[in-house]
Amino acid sequence: MPKYFAKVSDEHVEHIREYIKRFTAHPFAGTPTGDVLADATSSEGKMIRPRLLMMVSEYGTCRRDVQERLYKLGAIVEMTHLASLIHDDIVDDAPFRRGKPSVQHKYGKSAAVYAGDFLMSRISYYLMLEGQNRSGMILSKAVEEMCAGEIGQAMCRYQEDVTIRQYLQNIHGKTVALFMACCRIGAMESGCSEKTITQLESFGECLGYMFQLRDDLLDFTTEQTVSGKNAHQDFREGIYTLPVLLAQKKPGGMEALHPFMEKSAAGTLTGRDICEMEGLVAELGGMTETWDLIHTYQKQAEMLLEALPSREVSSSLRKLIGKLGAV
Question: Which residues form the domain of 296?
Fold first, then answer.
């Protein structure tokens, strides 16, 4: 998890954490499902999405009047993210999440399924209880897109002819949609104009793409112990991220990478294969061109910020995208 998110809107985080505790209170203590919920809602997460929601709300005219409502929505957004992580781990059969044993690996798939479903039921309950219909609709649509992104990615596994357009559609659902929803909800609930809401939603889109593309580069720039996942786990599982797809499009790229994709599908990739594949992707420009796309989104985000009303938070958001765009 990028450290530069950790310092954003810290004054709001404890309030949001308290609502998470309240909204996820349960009678399952001492059971595997209770343990999954305890793990998932622990205080270790960086709370990127609720922090973003709170930051963009600074552009609204009535933010102070709806502070508690925003805290509650921040909690619900984070619960949505946590539920998606639990379900992703189950589908992926992932033994680790960010370098630590995944909840389904520690407590079993059944407990993880129950915990994820429990979180989703509480999300629906508290959205209705608080009368947050408009924000609930936005969040529900984002969850639909998240599911579509995961389904799309599953359909593309081990497919050597995956297009860059398909890849971008999949990560839009998996990652970008929830960033956009956080920005739209924060802006709308705090009384922003429709123009500002749309601008901030577009800013969230740029930020989401930057975040996911940078994450895709971790395999090519970071040791396993730092990134918190097995080196090139995506490639091993037939998920070909943008650096690989861009390298593949270069003259000779398909021929060079095809043997490694075949071994990926067969489950016979060795450590040496991974090193060779990584070197080829670098030589063919896959990493450099991924950075170029990150910087394209960075410029778009900066232009959107320039067009927004002047607020103190604009400086923090500008620094945020600057750090995401730093090589």
Answer: 3-324
Q: What is the DSSP letter of 193?
A: -
Tally the domains of the chain.
1
Q: Name residues whose C-beta falls within 8 Å of residue 66's C-beta, 6 or more positions apart in sequence.
A: 57, 60, 189, 190, 191
- Directed axis angle between helix 67-92 and helix 177-189, to 10°? 170
The Cα–Cα gap between 79 and 47 comes to 10
User: What is the CATH classification number for the domain harbouring 110?
Assistant: 1.10.600.10
Average pLDDT over residues 44-57: 91
To the question of pTM greater than 0.85 for the whole model, the response is yes
- Quickly tell me which residue has 């994450």 as its tokens: 215
Beta-bridged to residue 96, according to DSSP, are 101
Which residue, 190, 195, 202, 198, is CA-closest to 74? 190
CB 278 within 8 A of CB 198: no
